[in-house]
Amino acid sequence: MSEQRDRWAELTAGQAGEEYARRFARLAESGHDIHGEAAFCTTLLEPASRVLDAGCGTGRIAIRLAELGHHCTGVDIDSSMLAVARRDAPSQEWLPGDLARLDALGLEPRFDLVLAAGNVIPLLAPGTESTVVRQLSAALRPGGLLVTGMGLDAAHLPLPEPPVTLAEFDHWCAQAGLVLRQRCATWSGDPYTEGCGYAVSVHARPAR
Ligand SMILES: C[S@@+](CC[C@H](N)C(=O)[O-])C[C@H]1O[C@@H](n2cnc3c(N)ncnc32)[C@H](O)[C@@H]1O
Question: Where are the domains of the chain?
């Protein structure tokens, strides 16, 4: 496990699962589309692809991707979040684990897509980000995709200021052998322009 607690744990003390699920249930009830990430990912995937939802939380996205026909594994370090995922989709694979030590879970590194949505990257433990990106890259098959969504300003983060810049993130991806393929400002695919508060990035692991 990381020596320092992740920023999510600092914010929530590991108790956020039920409230997080209720927040999205309320959004869905009021007519918001809470499946933008899954819809975005599925446009990048062949039918019945293998997806790793890294920092899956309550399983909101992995459950939807499974409904869309993909094979999803969810990994998260927060047991209150995973408890909701297990309750809502007991037949899916939910693994407790630290993304900085993903290799310790013994997963076969053959995922078609690894997803880190919902500000997982900015909410990691400080100083572990480049290690996590390397671990996520290593879980991909050649030609596989890393898809991330992260806030770049306080309006798009549950933090007073962004701990990670896009330039730093791209640098960690390049160090991990990943190539930027696409960048949007939203999960609906709106074009990214310099200064946007949110970035959806698709990095590819080059095919051998
Ligand atoms: C804001 S939640 C997003 C959950 C989910 N991806 C979603 O979009 O609904 C951020 C998640 O990242 C997870 N996380 C942060 N650091 C982690 C780490 N080192 N290993 C595994 N999960 C981590 C947290 O436990 C939390 O569930």
Answer: 7-204
Tell me how far the alpha carbon of residue 201 is from its chain's centroid.
11
pLDDT digits (tens, 9 = 90+) for 164-203: 999 999 999 999 999 999 999 999 999 999 999 999 999 9
Question: Are 144 and 204 contacting, i.e. CB atoms less than 8 angstroms apart?
Answer: yes
Structure tokens at 7: 């920023």
**Which residue's C-alpha comes closest to atom 10 of ligand 1?**
120
Query: How far away, in angstroms, is 43 Cα from ligand 1 center?
Result: 23
What integer pLDDT is reported at residue 4 of this predicted model?
79
CA-closest residue to ligand 1 atom 1: 118
The 3-class secondary structure across 131-184, one letter per residue, is HHHHHHHHCEEEEEEEEEEEECCHHHCCCCCCCCCHHHHHHHHHHCCCEEEEEE
112 lines ligand 1 (CB under 6 A): no
The pLDDT of residue 163 is: 96
Evaluate: CB of 123 within 6 angstroms of ligand 1: yes
Domain covering 7-204 assigned CATH 3.40.50.150 in the classification: yes
Per-residue pLDDT of 29-38, as tens digits, reads 999 999 999 9
8 lines ligand 1 (CB under 6 A): yes
Q: Which residues have a Cβ under 8 Å from the Cβ of 85 and sit 6 or more positions away?
A: 56, 57, 58, 59, 62, 63, 74, 76, 92, 94
Q: Identify the pLDDT of residue 50.
A: 98
